[in-house]
Design brief:
This protein is an alpha+beta fold. It has one domain: 2,3-Dihydroxybiphenyl 1,2-Dioxygenase, domain 1 (Roll), CATH 3.10.180. Helices cover 13% and strands 20% of the residues. It contains two helices and five strands; from the N terminus they run αβββαββ. Strand 4 and strand 5 form a beta hairpin. It is globular and about 45 Å long.
Length: 111
Amino acid sequence: MVRIADILASLGMWDSIERGPGRHGATRAFYFYIRDPDGIRIELYTGDYVILDPDKWKPIEWRFDQARYRSDFWGRPIPDRWKEIKPVESIVRGGMKPLEGYTSMMPTIRW
């Protein structure tokens, strides 16, 4: 993840670095979020859970006051840029889908 940051910085692409390197609270995986030239968010991450003994594994239960640690284990807040809404192209019918209806379903989380 640090190597990705080094490469983007050496190319002068600081604005494409959106968040990270960081660590997800839920999976403990390291992540890095970038935006491509079209503004599409891309997540790079190191992996997911490795459960060696499913009979002994117990899920993590997060309390509401721990919400910020689910997205970033180190507790950094979500950037304002993540609250932007972009239209989505339908893969079934083509064309852009309207955002009305989708935004009303989005939860409001206050940090």
